[in-house]
Each structure stands twice: as structure tokens, then as C-alpha cells.
Specification:
It is a single chain. By secondary structure, the protein is an alpha+beta fold. The protein has a domain at about 10-45. Helices cover about 40% and strands about 20% of the residues. The chain has one helix at about 40-65; strands at about 15-20, 20-25, 35. The chain is elongated and about 50 Å long. About 10% of the residues are buried. The model has no long low-confidence stretch (mean pLDDT about 90).
Length: about 80
């Protein structure tokens, strides 16, 4: 499913160094975690994880709207 979002957004992420590399999470998106051997790998991985998280959230919202006979709308903030 391709997202209809045209505007790039910035999300703060938390990098945690470990013996295996880096763990990274996005506090704004519950459960959105990833990892990488280097900081750059971890940032690339969390970027993809955030994109997938948002796609799933949009799909879930559309499904919820259709179950409730509602319409999914968008607002710009």
C-alpha cells in the first residue's frame, strides 16, 4: 500500500549503543523499534520501520472507518 503523504515529517528517535551495534526507537510511534550494526544502519532501519508503521496505521484507520460506515479524512497541521 502506497502512502498518500506528500509532506516529509521529522520524528525524534533514540539510539542506544550495545555490544551488537545500535538499537533505535521512535517514541512518537509505540512499538516502532529497529537496530543496526552502525549508527547509520540503525537510522536507515528506523526510517523504514517508521514508514511501515505509518502505512499499517493508515490501513488500520481505513478499515476502522469502513467498519463504522465512516469516512477517513485528512487534516493538515
Amino acid at each position: 500500500m502506497e502512502s498518500g503523504y506528500a509532506v516529509a515529517m521529522k520524528y525524534p528517535v533514540i539510539l542506544i549503543k550495545s555490544d551488537e551495534g545500535f538499537a533505535v526507537s521512535c517514541p512518537a510511534l509505540p512499538g516502532c523499534w529497529s537496530q543496526g550494526k552502525t549508527e547509520q544502519d540503525a537510522l536507515a532501519s528506523i526510517r523504514e520501520a517508521i514508514q511501515l508503521w505509518l502505512e499499517v496505521a493508515e490501513e488500520d484507520a481505513r478499515n476502522e472507518a469502513s467498519r463504522e460506515a465512516g469516512t477517513l479524512a485528512e487534516v493538515t497541521v
